[in-house]
Amino acid sequence: QVQLEESGGGLVQPGDPLNLSCVRSGRALNVLYMGWFRQVPGKEREFVAGITWNSGRAVYGDSVRGRSTISRDFAKNTVSLQMYSLTPLDTAVYYCAVRQAGRSTYEYWGQGIQVTVSA
Predict the structure, then answer these.
(1) What CA dihedral angle connects 67, 73, 79 and 80, to 10 degrees?
(2) Among 30, 67, 99, 105, which one is most buried in terms of CB atoms within 10 A?
(3) What are the phi and psi torsion angles at 89 (to 5°)?
Protein backbone atom coordinates (compact mmCIF):
# COMPACT_ATOMS: atom_id res chain seq x y z
CA GLN A 1 0.00 0.00 0.00
CA VAL A 2 1.11 3.51 -0.80
CA GLN A 3 -0.46 6.55 0.81
CA LEU A 4 -0.19 10.14 -0.27
CA GLU A 5 -1.65 12.71 2.07
CA GLU A 6 -2.02 16.32 1.03
CA SER A 7 -2.30 19.20 3.46
CA GLY A 8 -2.36 22.97 3.45
CA GLY A 9 -5.40 23.74 1.36
CA GLY A 10 -8.46 25.73 2.25
CA LEU A 11 -9.60 29.29 1.69
CA VAL A 12 -6.97 31.70 0.42
CA GLN A 13 -7.31 35.41 -0.20
CA PRO A 14 -6.49 36.65 -3.72
CA GLY A 15 -2.87 37.71 -3.86
CA ASP A 16 -1.88 35.57 -0.89
CA PRO A 17 0.54 32.64 -1.08
CA LEU A 18 -0.35 28.98 -0.84
CA ASN A 19 1.68 26.22 0.75
CA LEU A 20 0.76 22.62 0.04
CA SER A 21 2.53 19.53 1.33
CA CYS A 22 2.25 15.87 0.47
CA VAL A 23 3.62 13.09 2.62
CA ARG A 24 4.26 9.67 1.09
CA SER A 25 4.06 6.60 3.27
CA GLY A 26 3.66 2.87 2.94
CA ARG A 27 5.80 0.48 0.96
CA ALA A 28 9.02 1.64 -0.62
CA LEU A 29 8.89 2.90 -4.18
CA ASN A 30 11.48 3.64 -6.81
CA VAL A 31 10.28 7.20 -7.20
CA LEU A 32 11.24 9.03 -10.36
CA TYR A 33 8.94 12.03 -10.08
CA MET A 34 6.52 13.51 -7.62
CA GLY A 35 4.09 16.03 -8.91
CA TRP A 36 1.13 18.27 -8.27
CA PHE A 37 -1.95 18.39 -10.43
CA ARG A 38 -5.21 20.25 -10.09
CA GLN A 39 -8.71 19.85 -11.38
CA VAL A 40 -11.79 22.01 -11.62
CA PRO A 41 -15.19 20.34 -12.02
CA GLY A 42 -15.99 19.84 -15.68
CA LYS A 43 -12.41 20.36 -16.81
CA GLU A 44 -9.48 18.06 -17.43
CA ARG A 45 -6.86 17.56 -14.80
CA GLU A 46 -4.03 20.05 -15.20
CA PHE A 47 -0.34 19.53 -14.50
CA VAL A 48 0.90 22.11 -11.99
CA ALA A 49 4.46 21.14 -11.13
CA GLY A 50 6.74 18.14 -10.89
CA ILE A 51 10.11 17.37 -9.42
CA THR A 52 12.66 14.69 -10.19
CA TRP A 53 13.11 12.93 -6.89
CA ASN A 54 16.86 12.33 -7.06
CA SER A 55 18.10 15.47 -8.80
CA GLY A 56 15.52 17.98 -7.61
CA ARG A 57 14.98 19.28 -11.11
CA ALA A 58 11.64 21.03 -11.28
CA VAL A 59 9.20 21.64 -14.09
CA TYR A 60 6.09 23.79 -14.01
CA GLY A 61 2.85 24.05 -15.88
CA ASP A 62 2.27 27.13 -17.99
CA SER A 63 -0.39 28.56 -15.70
CA VAL A 64 1.85 28.62 -12.62
CA ARG A 65 5.36 29.03 -14.03
CA GLY A 66 7.12 31.97 -12.48
CA ARG A 67 4.95 32.07 -9.39
CA SER A 68 5.42 28.59 -7.97
CA THR A 69 8.14 26.57 -6.30
CA ILE A 70 8.13 22.81 -5.86
CA SER A 71 10.56 21.15 -3.48
CA ARG A 72 11.16 17.78 -1.87
CA ASP A 73 12.47 16.46 1.44
CA PHE A 74 14.10 13.05 1.26
CA ALA A 75 14.07 12.41 4.96
CA LYS A 76 10.38 13.18 5.30
CA ASN A 77 9.27 11.69 1.97
CA THR A 78 7.53 14.96 1.35
CA VAL A 79 6.94 17.15 -1.65
CA SER A 80 5.80 20.72 -1.19
CA LEU A 81 4.32 23.31 -3.47
CA GLN A 82 4.40 27.03 -2.86
CA MET A 83 2.34 29.27 -5.08
CA TYR A 84 2.23 33.04 -5.05
CA SER A 85 -0.10 35.74 -6.28
CA LEU A 86 -3.08 33.48 -6.26
CA THR A 87 -6.21 34.41 -8.19
CA PRO A 88 -9.67 32.82 -8.28
CA LEU A 89 -8.47 30.91 -11.38
CA ASP A 90 -6.27 28.88 -9.05
CA THR A 91 -9.34 27.50 -7.30
CA ALA A 92 -9.30 23.74 -7.74
CA VAL A 93 -8.76 20.41 -6.06
CA TYR A 94 -5.02 19.84 -5.87
CA TYR A 95 -3.61 16.33 -6.09
CA CYS A 96 -0.23 14.93 -5.23
CA ALA A 97 1.05 12.04 -7.35
CA VAL A 98 3.99 9.69 -7.74
CA ARG A 99 5.54 8.25 -10.86
CA GLN A 100 8.01 5.44 -10.50
CA ALA A 101 11.08 4.75 -12.60
CA GLY A 102 10.21 2.64 -15.60
CA ARG A 103 6.58 3.76 -15.60
CA SER A 104 5.06 6.04 -18.17
CA THR A 105 2.40 7.60 -15.97
CA TYR A 106 1.79 8.80 -12.46
CA GLU A 107 0.29 5.75 -10.76
CA TYR A 108 -0.25 6.75 -7.15
CA TRP A 109 -2.49 9.64 -6.23
CA GLY A 110 -3.58 11.40 -3.11
CA GLN A 111 -7.24 12.04 -2.37
CA GLY A 112 -6.91 15.68 -3.23
CA ILE A 113 -7.29 18.85 -1.27
CA GLN A 114 -9.57 21.77 -2.02
CA VAL A 115 -8.05 25.20 -2.55
CA THR A 116 -10.47 28.09 -2.90
CA VAL A 117 -9.20 31.54 -3.77
CA SER A 118 -11.80 34.10 -2.82
CA ALA A 119 -12.19 37.37 -1.00
Answers:
(1) -40
(2) 99
(3) -65, -15
d(CA 20, CA 79): 8
Dihedral sign from CA coordinates of 96, 67, 105, 92: positive
**What does the alpha-carbon distance between residue 94 and residue 47 come to, in Å, rounded to a whole number?**
10
Rg (CA), the chain: 14
Per-residue pLDDT of 13-27, as tens digits, reads 999 999 999 999 999
Sheet with strand 2-7: strands edge to edge: 2-7, 18-26, 78-83, 68-73
32-73: pLDDT as tens digits = 999 999 999 999 999 999 999 999 999 999 999 999 999 999
Closest CA to 83 of 113, 45, 108: 113
CA–CA gap between residue 36 and residue 20 (Å, rounded):
9
